[in-house]
Amino acid sequence: MSDSRAECGYRNPQTKSAQMFFILIFLLFVNISSTFADQYHYNDSLIGNRATGLAGSYVAISDDPSGLYYNPSGIVYSASTNVTANMNAYKYARTKYVAALTSSTGQKVDWIRETSGLVPSFFGITQPLGPGTIGFSYAITDSILEDQEQSFNDIRQAGTTYNINFNNQDVTNNVGPTYALAIGDKFSIGLTMYGYFRNKKRIFNQIYQLSADGQQNDDNIEQRPFYISNQYFSLDEYGIKPILGMTYTPVDKLTLGFTITKTYLLNSSIRQQDSEATNICYNDSINKQERCTDSKPTSFILSQQAIDQSRQFPWQVNAGAAYFYSNKLLLTGSAWVYEAINLTQKPLINVAGGLEYYITGKLAIRVGAYTNWSNAPELVNNATNIYNEHIDIVGGTMSLTHFTRSSSISIGAAGTYGKGKAQITGGSAIQDVQYIGLSGFISASNSF
Amino acid sequence: MHSNKHSLLIILLLLIVSLPQAALSADKNFRLRLHQNNADINTLSDIDTEVKFGKTISARILGQFKEYKNEGLKRYVNLVGKSLAMNSSRDEIEFHFSVLNADFINAYSAPGGYVFITKGAIKAMRDEAELAAVLAHEVAHITRKHIVNEFKIKAADDSATAGLSNLLGSSSSSAKVAFSQSVDNAVNMLINKGFKKEEELDADKEALLLLAATGYDPSSMRRYLKRTKHIIKKTQSRTKHKPTHPPTSKRIKSLKRIAKQEGLNRLKLPRANARFNKYVRL
Amino acid sequence: MKKLCLILALFVAAPVTAFSGDIMYIMSARAKLLTDPAFGSKTIENVSKGEKILAIEKKSNWYKVIYNEKTGWVSRLSVSSHPPLKRSRRMAKADTKLMNNSRRRASSVSTTAAVRGLTDIDRSRVSNDEKMDYASVTLMENYHIEDNEIVTFMDDIKD
Asked: Are A293 and A279 in contact (CB under 8 A)?
């Protein structure tokens, strides 16, 4: 019962203070990594049933409403004059940060983030208008729904509890019209003008509590060291995303597609509120004194961020080919090239390929594979990396469609696997990351 | 290295050889997938739908103009018309022909096989080949499915898949209907659909081929149009609506060109003048 | 490399063999296999409706086909890639209910726009909704002529 307790709270002047200094930086700092969630990947979305089955390698086909997103010029080649299509997907993804936390016995503990939810991801309609074809669609290109509560014991020190409540919603909508025109027999051109809308909200609460030095005495409960953090972050962006597309048919059965697009942000507003409270004293080695933070929580609010500080969108070019071998078999391949922006040191390239085969006149199967590389540079050891995540992902898709006279129904699945590195606990520790994504979808199409 | 070069050469040769061959079956429809090929098939219920549609139109026409009561002429016109139908690709439809009691020159066709020709039109004819020409033009509209395609006349799709598809929201939203209707209205207001003129030229072309296939002199169409040109022009100027047919002179030119292309000028096919005069006493 | 070339060659050669012929069907009641792609050329054989033929070449409005081990040309008008349907005789029924189980495009179009004529049609003449004569249509439908009579008539086309 020492009376050397400082006013600000519990402290053990000897060995524990040194340890306490390090405690804070072993908590999770999700701040940086998810401010602009998934700015690290460009190929997250698969839109429309046929395109999804073909792993997104659709730029040279695009002859149905999914084409409104992948290559607007393709819709002039639609077999039916009026078509509608939609897609609903159930998405699940799990990111595991290996050994992100350390237990009191020195054991490493993984931190897992999971997102899951049912999302209507696409709706599109096309019909002829004048000399060309008009269309309208909305595509939800990004949808993250993380909602988890986790509890860890004995992180860093025996007798600690570490509770996390993490809620992160991030949805990106693209909505808008399309017009496309055939020029001669072999060439077509089209433009989709999407309005881009993104809405993100993240609430992240952490409570880290040290037990009283082995004591079970509850008299000291208010003296127990603790760390509380509450973060609220909300982001609203809107802009336009024009997609210009072209299709060229050099010879019979072979088509080449090309699109170029870029998202232009018109407005971006951020609201942020961070609160923090702790009574843990730490050793300020700079001023050579022990410091205790005030027990009152500190907070700051930030609103309205200038656009040039917000996310940069690269120019994106997609080129591909499709070979309509027969009315049963279709092969396709494509590549995306993304301009290098501040995140990357060189342009990023993703590829995809797919195959569609009609088992009967009423049943078709599609398979495909694609890459979704990270656009962040590789993490550097023993340094604070500004872009603190680099996960390279590959994916495989499969779908089955049943056709009748004027409608079709598809079911399918996409599986993705990623591996990489992250730096999410502050300091210079780097974690291995494993990523698994699985989505199942059901989609329908109607022509009239 | 040599073997590689040879292999590449073989591939290139095969590629060159295969491409024109591939053009046979696909033409510009290589994009059509197997289910879409099948969707083109006319089922019996599609034909039922087409006939019902045409029946209503025919009822309107016959309500407006009475049939010209002459058994002999009725039989004769039906014989000529059904001869043409026999050589067309839509033998699954039964074609019916009727003479209207009207003095102006015109002929009508409705989907499902209903063809009407006015008394006045027959009066201006000189031989059976000319009658066949006019009927062939109308039959061609039906065999080429101009209206069926324009109005998407098809039997309803009441399969389970279609029902489930509607349930999933791909086609049931009123927004969809509103969208297409407003587009249609916009089109009707702003843009004059020129495709009808193409349809007429298409029907003219098809008629020529049908005439030749049946055994009639194909030049009869041109002759008839030339002779009735001034009368038709008078009718056109009287109507308030924008003409859906290309000008007669353009049609005649087009007919001349097609006849030359198909080598029809070389044919010496009969006009059945004598038989025409025997049955047609107008 | 050699193996790859061989595979590629097969891949390319496949279309060559695959499209050396398309099965088609005779659709018209009277179709003729001719020596040349022109009306008026000599008839090799008469082909009946429903017969299968193998189309190996297309030239303008003609198909070069193999039928019954003979090679010749048939007119585009006579063939289709789908087999013919059985013709149905319309029952004489005044069916005033338009398309109770069928569907067409949801747009505001009147059936008068669906009339096709030889020359321009004075729309006002055919737009009067009150005068509908289904009875006459039924009579028109019931007027039949036997196929052999039509054939006899057709064979007798002469100047």
From this structure: yes
**C-alpha–C-alpha distance, residues A102 and A155, integer Å:** 6
- Token reading at A130: 């004048």
Provide the 3-class DSSP secondary structure of residue A237: strand
Partner residues linked to A394 by β-bridges: A371, A417
ipTM over 0.85: no
Chain-chain contact of B34 with A364 (C-beta, under 8 angstroms): yes
When scoring C119, C152, C159 by the number of chain B Cβ atoms within 10 A, the one with the most, hence best to mutate, is C119
Question: Is residue A119 within 8 Å of A169, Cβ to Cβ?
Answer: no
Pairing mode of beta strands A298-303, A264-278: antiparallel
At A297-308, the pLDDT tens digits run 444 444 444 445
Q: How many helices (H) and strands (E) does chain B have?
A: 13, 4
**β-strand pairing of A316-323 with A254-261:** antiparallel
Terminal Cα-to-Cα distance of chain B (whole angstroms): 85
Tell me how many residue pairs between chain A and chain B have CB atoms under 8 A apart.
Answer: 123
CA distance C122 to B229: 17
Amino acid in the structure at residue B93: I
Q: Which residues pair with A442 in a beta bridge?
A: A88, A411
Tell me the two tokens of residue B149.
């395609």
Instruction: Give A138's contacts in chain B (Cβ within 8 Å).
Output: none
Q: How far apart are CA B260 and CA C35, in angstroms?
A: 20
Q: Hey, where are the domains in chain B?
A: 27-269
- Identity of the residue in C15, C18, C105 whose CB atom sits nearest the CB atom of A448: C105
pTM of the predicted protein model:
0.64
pLDDT digits (tens, 9 = 90+) for A265-283: 888 888 888 777 776 655 5
Count of CB atoms situated within 10 Å of the CB of A136: 21
Nearest to B91 by CA among B210, B256, B220: B210
